[in-house]
Amino acid sequence: MILDLSLQLAQMIIVLVLAPALMGFVRKVKSRLQQRQGPSILQPYRDLWKLSKKEAVLAENASWLFRVTPYLIFSATWTAASLVPTFATGLPLSVSADLIAIIALLGSARFFLALAGLDIGTSFGGIGSSREVMIASLAEPALIIVTFTLALIAGSTQLSVIAAFMTSGDAGLRVSLGLALVALIIVAIAENARVPVDNPATHLELTMVHEAMVLEYSARHLAVIEFAGSLKLLLYVSLIAAVFIPWGLATPDSAPAQYGIGVATYIAKLALAGVLLGVFETTIAKMRVFRVPEFLGISLMLALLGALLMFVTRSL
Amino acid sequence: MCGSNHEPALMSGLPTVVILLCGVAVLLAMGIVGAFAARTRNGSTLVYGICLLICATQTVVALHYVLAGAQAIPESYLLPIGLPWIGAHFDLDLLAALFLVVVNLGAASASLYGLGYGRHESQPSRVVPFFPAFLAAMNLVVIAGDAFTYLISWEFMSLSSWTLVMAHHQEASNRAAGYVYLVMASFGTLTLLVAFGLLAPAGGYVFVDMRLLDHEKLLTGIIFGLALIGCGSKAGVVPLHAWLPLAHPAAPSHVSALMSGVMTKVAIYGFIRIVFDLLGPPQTWWSVVVLSVGGVTAVLGVLQAMMQNDLKVLLAYSTVENVGIVFIALGLALAFESGGIHWAAALAFVAALFHVFNHSLFKSLLFYGAGAVHAATHERDMEHLGGLIHRMPVTAFAFLVGSMAISALPPLNGFVSEWLTFQAILVSPQLSAWGLKFLIPAVGAMLALSAALAAACFVKAFGLAFLGRPRSSATEIAHEAHPASRAAMLLLVALCVAAGILPGYVIDTIAPITDVFVGGHMPLQAAQSWLTIVPIDQTRSSYNGLFVFLFSALAASLGAYVIHRVASREVRRAPAWDCGYPDANPLLQYSASSFAQPIRRVFGTLLFQARETVAMPKPGDIGAARFHLVVRDLIWDTLYLPIARYVTLVAERANRAQSLTIRQYLGLVFITLVSLLSLLALLQ
After folding, report:
1. Across the A/B interface, how many CB contacts are shorter than 8 Å?
2. Cis amide prior to B84 (ω within 30 degrees)
3. Can you spell out the DSSP letters for B649-662?
């Protein structure tokens, strides 16, 4: 019991510690691909530290909701990230929420962020919120349908069970899994406001969705939101890794050395994902905002096709 | 008194159903008292106060019966009123008792809210007498034990709510709403009348006798269709929902809450009573119909809600969506029952009833919030609201919790019932019917879509009404709602949170019903450790609302604590940044229709034929640019309007028969008589 709880605690701390590093690593990869030196991988930690030390400037009519939203977003994202298997499956907290609940927790975070965008009463905040909810209204169903496919293959919506089933190799190669993977990657790109859906590096009004909502935030509030953003990226990478490249995950009855291997392979998976994301973002251009529904529609349709295959026959 | 079937009573020797009937009698008496009391100074307070007491008592009595679970004994009672020699039958079983809890909990909170809100009423004598009558009617529908009593109570419920819709009849839009409501309500009652007629040939019109009858397959199919139309039109199922977004917002807000939160549930009760209880074993195609109708209702309802600028109309359309979700779960229960997977049918049935309970809580809560806003600002249009979180903090908090719950966000209650529905959907590949294998994933996608759109819709509702800067002068001087109204809202907030973090208790309370209605049951949730819910033994998918709540609360407080301890805690207030170009005019904020624009473009171009045109003035012209938006309701245009036109045409033709000579009338009578007699001769 104590061991289980300490493993859970370890996971919660690992995701916190690694999240900014993943963000920094992606930036580093992109810089190198553009023939630049780029900032250090540790730069996001320094940014967070710098921001949290500054005096917060709040708009005159900011309500209490605006002030608590960063912490609510952070807590919902952190809760969700602690429930996704990173280096081990079967951790004690994992019974408290399945994949659907994790998706809904991220939905809660988005709900508050969109509200915060409307709180000050500026046009930029409104434009960001309204686009964010439009993107979410397509991305979230796609994610739920991907969950259907995974749950029908593994026999449960519990992520721990899904990851354990995938590790066992009984799943094999399936068409529906391939469709689910593509759908999941598209959703992950959209939800994390990455190129081609949104550009995390701009403040130009016409390209921004996420940045427009957090425009009025400063100092510690901004730091917490940025931290939650990097946690969310880590969460999606962990989710894809746990389901599609589950090798190296420790199970509840494995030896202590296996946990070490689990952590090492986890970091390797994050690095791989970081390289792939960096390469992808460098090779593709940002799309117009009203192209995004079509892009996400592809994800929704692929996910639905995969789920239909699973409903009709268990073998595809 | 000629009571029959005296079963051993639960409380103090009296059968529970008698206690409930006494409560109804007091409510009816309050209706009469209200007619006189409304004119006095504290009359409405008296009526609402007594309604609160009675409904709270009814809730406790019904809940006591429900909590007996499998041990609860069905009761019936015969009152010598109604049809001569037959009387009126009243039955109480677990299903009725559960819906009585929903009805009376909503009614009690509405009475509490009315204690404060009723003070704003300009014409109390148009509301106060009918309010208790409406409450009594809803109680009567649920405990009615024969077709006659059921239909009379149903019609009483329709008419008493119609009078409340017409309370502010000076506004033309309310009169139109009342007219459409009256037409649709009569149509619904008519189909139910035919349904009961077919169910009960020659004398078997008591529910107990109906259950014993064996009907042909074709006949049960027809009755099923009629029940779906009759109850569905009251519940607001697409395409029979047209009256709902007109009538619900027209009534005073606590009545809107009752109509949306409670009366639609009474309609769902009627559907369950006929289809799951009186009709006997279901056929597979019923589930196909119910699932399709439910899916379409959920998605269209929430998309329509997203397009609205009027806060109460938005809430009414969202009711349509939630009714769709309940029908999806009921369709799943029918599919599993006809497919012989009874434990899965039990899961879907519990999910449906859980959502019924949840929706009655958060929809009432949201309507109370909208009512408080209306009382404070005299505005329902979100384009004229904004910034109310500063002026009305308690209402804003309550509305926020309600918005989160209805958007199915954990750890609140709305999430749990949708989660249970998703779990039921994931069992469906075990069904053998091929049509369902394609339909159920599509319906699952619709459910997911409507949940996501609901979140978008309530970001809009809360964000535009309560956040931002005030868009009108009335909003700037708004004041917080009356303490009684605030108490009603906070009570519902507490219930939403409690049902969300302790869902196991709610499931265990509902679960004993399923053995009777779908012949299976869910695993006992109290047996799980740490209050986790595990609805299906085989898959072990689980959810623990308490952990999610505690962990989120701890993580948020820890984050805030650490930041404030180790980093800066200084705050400075300054003008909004807004990229350096802050708009001075609050009307330049994002508006309700601009917020909906991205979603309108994605979904509405096809579904609502939404067209936007921008007319720019010519170069050199200093006139204003015009933005024009057309959103059509295709169901209204292609279904209701042609029918209305046709009916008008027929009525005009028939009008000629109004002014015939006496000879022609006698001729008509003669022709009718002869044709009826020859028909009789042919049939024999």
Report:
1. 289
2. no
3. HHHHHHHGGGG--H
